[in-house]
Design brief:
This protein has six helices and two strands; from the N terminus they run ββαααααα. It is mainly alpha-helical. Helix 1 runs antiparallel to helix 3, helix 1 runs parallel beside helix 5 and helix 4 packs antiparallel against helix 6. It is flat and about 65 Å long.
Length: about 150
């Protein structure tokens, strides 16, 4: 698997093959992305609940958004979410999208689990099976991208 990194040797660009350290770096930055995205979504939820509970029922959507933009948790959530989007652009410029997207699916595991803990939401057994299948898929994706060196006898 070749990445967008090249070494110039006498005017010729030679592609650098992803090694184990490159994939480890990619996984590290994808996990940072997952944490930023997850925290951003959770903060948006907390902030939105705070704004909607303090607003009257007949409030217009414009007034709702005006009060939402002054809620610090929404502002921080948007900042994290936008930062995660910027990091994602950097990640996909250096990592195969098929790998990065599979690993980023960890958000589909973390957000429901943290929603149960933070917001007392319920997760049905069918949703739990889905979360488990996503976890298996992420593990398989990571395992398929690990290169195992072969020794010559």
């Amino acid at each position: 698997m070749y990445g967008p990194f090249f070494i110039k040797v006498g005017g010729t660009a030679i592609p650098i093959r992803y090694g184990e350290s490159m994939m480890n770096q990619c996984v590290f930055w994808i996990l940072i992305y997952v944490c930023m995205s997850t925290c951003g979504h959770l903060l948006l939820r907390i902030g939105a609940k705070s704004v909607s509970s303090s607003s009257a029922d007949g409030v217009s959507i414009i007034m709702f958004f005006q009060s939402a933009m002054t809620e610090w948790r929404i502002v921080l959530g948007l900042f994290l979410w936008c930062g995660a989007a910027a990091l994602w652009i950097w990640i996909v410029s250096r990592t195969p999208l098929s790998f990065a997207y599979c690993v980023s699916s960890l958000t589909y595991i973390l957000i429901p689990l943290l929603s149960v803990w933070l917001f007392n939401e319920s997760v049905s057994w069918l949703k739990s099976v889905g979360i488990l299948l996503i976890a298996v898929g992420v593990c398989l994706s990571i395992a398929s991208s690990i290169s195992i060196p072969v020794r010559n006898p």
